[in-house]
């Protein structure tokens, strides 16, 4: 019978042997994917704390892999782990918002341009399907699905760059602002959302790097503008 504390198992000869590390790694990877998805789709609500044990129970795992993943996400400034074991999304101040926006405008158009030579007609078809689905979610008001699909659209482009440096940085930035965007969409709805995805797709078809950079920059400015207005109004009200 496995020893859950030591991570050891009995082999057929009765000797103790280490359990497969790949199993522990897989569990940690699954937890990481689930928590990151929760951040990107707004299931972590700003201002509302959760516990490590509560997250572990929800995910059906022990607290250990949850704690390890949270420590890593804390280093990325996506979550804040307090000394009492409670976890929450860090506050989004005006200064922090401006830094995230500037970083996105610097990094994402650059990565999209780097990806352009690797994007094919097959990618164009995939991006078009994603954008059609996004349009439907905007009309239906499904904010969580919109956020999931919007992330999929952008990162389908960015991953084609095969960047080992810029891609992780951009992934970290999305984890930082996404929970707040979900809150904004919950207040203003999705009907007024406008994206520049079709312009980006057209630029990819034409292999036009200038147009692609402009579409990505415009899309970021439009989306983050909603969040900036929300932060400004909150600061004024406070």
Walk me through the structure:
- The chain has a 3-stranded antiparallel β-sheet with strand order 3-5-4.
- The protein is mainly alpha-helical and 238 residues long.
- The chain has helices at 21-40, 52-59, 63-75, 94-115, 121-140, 143-159, 166-188, 197-206, 209-237; strands at 8-10, 16-18, 50-51, 80-81, 86-88.
- A hairpin with a 4-residue loop joins strand 4 and strand 5 (86-88).
**Category from helices, strands and their pairing:** mainly alpha
> Which descriptor suits the 3D outline?
globular
The gyration radius over C-alpha positions equals: 20 Å
Poorly predicted tracts of residues: 1-22
Strand content: 5-15%
Q: Within the largest sheet, what's the order of strands?
A: 3-5-4
Name the helix and strand elements from N-terminus to C-terminus, one letter apiece.
Answer: EEHEHHEEHHHHHH
Largest sheet: 3 strands, antiparallel
Task: Determine the fraction of residues in helical runs and give it as a percent range.
Answer: 55-70%
The residue-averaged pLDDT reads: 85
Write down how many β-strands occur, each being a DSSP E stretch of 2 or more residues: 5
Counted by DSSP, the helix tally is 9
Measured between the Cα atoms of the first and last residue, the distance is 58 Å
Secondary-structure map with pairings?
Blueprint: E1 8-10, E2 16-18, H1 21-40, E3 50-51, H2 52-59, H3 63-75, E4 80-81, E5 86-88, H4 94-115, H5 121-140, H6 143-159, H7 166-188, H8 197-206, H9 209-237
């Amino acid at each position: 019978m496995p020893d859950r504390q030591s991570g050891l198992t009995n082999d057929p000869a009765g000797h103790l042997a280490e359990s497969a590390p790949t199993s522990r790694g897989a569990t940690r990877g699954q937890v990481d994917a689930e928590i990151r998805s929760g951040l990107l789709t707004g299931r972590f609500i700003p201002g509302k704390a959760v516990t490590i044990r509560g997250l572990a129970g929800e995910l059906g795992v022990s607290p250990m892999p949850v704690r390890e993943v949270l420590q890593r996400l804390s280093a990325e400034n996506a979550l804040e782990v307090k000394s009492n074991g409670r976890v929450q999304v860090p506050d989004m101040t005006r200064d922090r918002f401006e830094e995230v926006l500037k970083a996105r405008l610097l990094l994402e158009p650059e990565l999209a341009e780097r990806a352009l030579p690797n994007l094919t007609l097959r990618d164009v078809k995939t991006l078009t399907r994603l954008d059609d689905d996004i349009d439907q979610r905007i009309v239906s008001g499904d904010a969580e699905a919109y956020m999931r699909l919007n992330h999929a659209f952008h990162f389908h482009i960015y991953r084609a760059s095969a960047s080992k440096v810029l891609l992780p940085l951009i992934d970290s930035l999305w984890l930082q602002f996404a929970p707040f965007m979900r809150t904004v969409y919950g207040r203003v709805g999705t009907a007024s959302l406008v994206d520049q995805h079709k312009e980006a797709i057209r630029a990819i078809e034409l292999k036009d790097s200038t147009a692609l950079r402009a579409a990505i920059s415009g899309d970021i400015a439009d989306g983050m503008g909603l969040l900036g207005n929300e932060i400004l109004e909150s600061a004024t009200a406070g």
